Amino acid sequence: MPARMREDELAEPRRPSRLVSDVTRGVAQPVRAPEPDPTWSESARAMWDGYWSSGQAGFAQSSDAAMLWRLCHLMTRADGMTKPSAMLETAIINGLNGLLVTEGSRRAARIELDIPPDVETPSWALEDVSDDDE
Questions:
Q1: For residues 103 and 67, is the Cβ–Cβ distance under 8 A?
Q2: Distance between CA atoms of 106 and 100, rounded to whole angstroms?
Q3: SS3 at position 52
């Protein structure tokens, strides 16, 4: 399923769903994240560092940090396997989606991260990745 369009890309604003209920609010607590494990694989460490340097980290709580830590441990285990199980890979991906690590998962949760006007768009984000043969 393709990612939902950003609100500013829509011709008309989305209509509120009748199935959406009011939000129950609480008070966010200071985040206490564990230190990254020095034995993690390169991809696990990249995920950890990327999460904490991204906009979605502003929504994180200590339980999210604990979950990400566990997922990085599982990523390291999967990276060390010759043939990781599909179930393990699925568990990792589902866990990461639950932490809103991709733009698609954030859009599904109706969270949009805006790039500040003073930040230059990276060149890789502007590259045309369409197939040249078409």
A1: no
A2: 5
A3: helix
The pair of three-digit structure tokens given for residue 47, joined into one six-digit string: 């995920």
The dihedral sign for the CA sequence 49, 51, 55, 57: negative
With 0-12 CB in 10 A as exposed, 13-18 as middle and 19+ as buried, what is 100?
A: buried
Condensed to tens digits (0 to 9), the pLDDT of residues 44-54 reads 999 999 999 98
Residue ranges per structural domain of the chain: 55-114
110 φψ region: left (φ > 0), alpha (ψ -120 to 50), beta (else): left
Write the CA distances from 4 to 42, 53, 103, 108, 112, integer angstroms.
30, 24, 9, 7, 11
Residues 7, 13 contacting (CB under 8 angstroms): yes
What span, in angstroms and rounded, lies between the C-alpha atoms of 45 and 47?
A: 5
A 10 A CB-CB count for 103 gives: 15
Place of tokens 């200590």: 62
Q: Give 86-121 pLDDT, tens digit per residue.
A: 999 999 999 999 999 988 888 888 888 877 777 776
